[in-house]
Amino acid sequence: VVLGVAAVIVLVGLYLTVYRPPREHVLTAGDVKYNADQVYRRALYMMLYQQAIAPKSQAEIVPKTLETMEREQTLRIRAKELVPEVTTEDVTKELQQLLAPPATAQPSVNVGGAAATVTVGTPEAGAAPSATPTVDLNAYAKALAVRLERSKLTKAELESIIAAGLYEDRLLEKFKADLPKSAPQVLLVIARIQDQPTAERVRSIALRPGVDFGPVAAQNSVSDARGARAGASTWVIVDRLDPVVRDVVKNMKAGDVSAVTPNGTYYEVYKVVEVSADHELTDDLKEQIALQKVLDWLTTEGKNLGTERDLTTQKEQWITDHVTRGYQKASATPRAK
């Protein structure tokens, strides 16, 4: 009897500490439910292969991962209403490009005669054109196996991550294509200064006739101004400026110099060099605007999709511990694609 009771206690302990935790519900996004193990594996993949968006501390691991999973599910479900649907073939091509990109055609070199000649992809007359570079399927299969092994993801989970990324790329391109070629803008110079007396002095210099404010701003600014590089004349859309800057600049005309304006822990001075009702949008500005449109779309559609988190301290700790150990183990082995 004693042995039987002991065995039951062991089994209950295993259930509570080993079997149940990874299977506990953590997130619902739309009609899809995710458990703790799925969140752990998504976080581990992010840590290993998506450093740009990966959590920067242990405290960020679970919140950042849940936010990412919610965003990706929103993209997979909602984006097809605006952009072409991502197909299985699209995902496979993207994975092949990521894990085993086709080698660039190498030039052929003819060293005969008086001088060497180099030919890149130009067949001789009557010769068949060179074949398009093809994917090394063996290399792809090996790289895919390594990535799945290190991240613990299933192939379907990896493909779903890739699909979400393709939808985000397509949304970004759509929003850029929808933008007009030009928009009302101002040519702005910003000085960002650490103390008010220096800012007042810089402003007094800017008010002198014929003074080029750019070098003065660049020389006295302690760091880059928000929304425009300190000292540089930058074309900006006023509504996209930092709210403090926007509220001042929106009432300025060409040639105006602002009063010294507190902004956070700094003091700023703005000069509007030129105003245009129809200035061409730069590629960089288009990218910024389109990216903000994607973020706004994600916020709206995420609410429409509906998400629900079922997170406790114990669940979060289990995920964090497993991600930390998994990352340490994977990082101790030679890094592969």
- Backbone CA Rg: 28 Å
The proportion of residues forming helix, as a percent range, comes to 40-55%
Number of helices: 11
Overall strand count: 9
Summarize the main sheet: 4 strands, antiparallel
For the largest beta sheet, what order do the strands appear in spatially? 6-5-8-7
Strand content: 15-25%
End-to-end separation: 54 Å
Structural classification? alpha+beta
* Low-pLDDT windows of residues: 10-16, 111-127
Mean pLDDT: 87
Q: How do the helices and strands follow one another from N- to C-terminus? A: HEEHHHEEHHEHHEHEEHEH
Overall 3D form: elongated
Concise summary:
With 337 residues, the chain is an alpha+beta fold. The protein contains eleven helices and nine strands.
Describe the structure.
The chain is α+β, with helices and mostly antiparallel strands and 337 residues long. The chain has helices at 2-23, 36-49, 61-78, 88-99, 137-151, 155-178, 196-206, 213-220, 243-249, 283-305, 313-331, and strands at residues 25-29, 32-35, 108-110, 117-119, 182-193, 234-236, 261-263, 266-280, 307-309. Helix 3 packs across helix 10 and helix 7 packs antiparallel against helix 8. The protein is elongated.
